């Protein structure tokens, strides 16, 4: 079942460009910094978060790019860092997880929180709600919780009502992503994670690029302009703060691989 918003035309959703140009070829240069979302950007969306297919080459591509960019690459995901490493294996690269609640610079072995932990009550309440509504998948994370409604589209309105009430009671932010409603601790989002990375010495003086597909990536797209960079929307055109677009996950992989090929040739590798 697609999200009802997917079926609205751009004109119905508001004004804005009808399409965006593709990004220029990625250059491994001292001024390049690269931030990558995971689901819908590096891997195709699957029906269940555990069912995503990670291409065998992906961990190596991420590691090689991070190495070529001398650490100026970070994954910025709604997933927890632990969930990402379950799928990709241990990563030496910088990562922000749980929508910016977890922050781990490259080479660090500990995760710095950028938010307070989610009150346990919120997961308990959503677990009860889920059980009463056909057993929706509840995915607790250190600083957020996701409730996946793909298999229970009829329960979306009541899920939103329950989540909005919890958000009000506990001062949380509500995010409505692809077939998922998430409650997130305040003070962290993908924009604040990007800003925190850009304040680090390895990112100083760079022009950041962020690739993301979901509405939850808009927080990052919005901060990029002030940081001298721009966002690349992955997927069909929709209202967005991004300035470039790639049509799908395959195009992202091609764009990244081309950068590595060019770099390897110039280095004589
Ligand atoms: O910021 P991301 O790395 O894109 O993570 C966003 C959410 O991704 C996961 O959910 C999404 O992908 C699932 C697998 O393809 C899909 O089943 C679900 O419908 C999508 O919303 C993850 O489970 C969430 O925790 C992330 O916040």
TrEMBL record:
<dbReference type="InterPro" id="IPR036412">
    <property type="entry name" value="HAD-like_sf"/>
</dbReference>
<comment type="similarity">
    <text>Belongs to the trehalose phosphatase family.</text>
</comment>
<protein>
    <recommendedName>
        <fullName>Trehalose 6-phosphate phosphatase</fullName>
        <ecNumber>3.1.3.12</ecNumber>
    </recommendedName>
</protein>
<comment type="pathway">
    <text>Glycan biosynthesis; trehalose biosynthesis.</text>
</comment>
<dbReference type="InterPro" id="IPR006379">
    <property type="entry name" value="HAD-SF_hydro_IIB"/>
</dbReference>
<dbReference type="InterPro" id="IPR003337">
    <property type="entry name" value="Trehalose_PPase"/>
</dbReference>
<comment type="function">
    <text>Removes the phosphate from trehalose 6-phosphate to produce free trehalose.</text>
</comment>
<keyword id="KW-0378">Hydrolase</keyword>
<keyword id="KW-0460">Magnesium</keyword>
<dbReference type="GO" id="GO:0004805">
    <property type="term" value="F:trehalose-phosphatase activity"/>
</dbReference>
<dbReference type="Pfam" id="PF02358">
    <property type="entry name" value="Trehalose_PPase"/>
</dbReference>
<dbReference type="InterPro" id="IPR044651">
    <property type="entry name" value="OTSB-like"/>
</dbReference>
<feature type="region of interest" description="Disordered">
    <location>
        <begin position="1"/>
        <end position="25"/>
    </location>
</feature>
<keyword id="KW-0479">Metal-binding</keyword>
<dbReference type="InterPro" id="IPR023214">
    <property type="entry name" value="HAD_sf"/>
</dbReference>
């Amino acid at each position: 079942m697609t999200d009802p918003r997917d079926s609205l035309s751009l004109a119905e959703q508001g004004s804005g460009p009808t399409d965006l140009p593709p990004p220029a070829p990625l250059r491994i240069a001292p001024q390049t910094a690269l931030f990558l979302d995971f689901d819908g950007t590096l891997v195709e969306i699957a029906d269940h978060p555990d069912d995503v297919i990670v291409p065998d080459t992906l961990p190596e591509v991420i590691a090689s790019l991070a190495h070529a960019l001398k650490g100026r690459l970070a994954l910025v995901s709604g997933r927890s860092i632990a969930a990402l490493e379950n799928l990709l294996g241990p990563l030496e690269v910088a990562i922000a997880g749980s929508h910016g609640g977890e922050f781990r610079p490259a080479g660090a072995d500990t995760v710095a929180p950028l938010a307070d932990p989610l009150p346990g009550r919120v997961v308990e309440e959503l677990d009860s709600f889920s059980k009463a509504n056909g057993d929706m998948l509840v995915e607790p994370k250190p600083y957020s919780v996701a409730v996946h409604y793909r298999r229970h589209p009829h329960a979306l309105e009541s899920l939103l009502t329950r989540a909005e009430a919890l958000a009000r009671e506990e001062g949380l932010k509500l995010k409505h992503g692809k077939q998922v409603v998430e409650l997130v601790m305040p003070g962290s989002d993908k924009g604040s994670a990007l800003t925190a990375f850009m304040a680090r010495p390895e990112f100083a003086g760079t022009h950041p690029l962020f690739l993301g597909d979901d509405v939850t990536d808009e927080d990052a797209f919005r901060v990029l302009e002030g940081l001298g960079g721009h966002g690349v929307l992955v997927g069909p055109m929709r209202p967005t703060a991004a300035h470039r677009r790639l049509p799908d996950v395959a195009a992202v992989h091609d764009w990244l691989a081309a950068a590595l090929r060019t770099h390897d040739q110039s280095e004589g590798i």
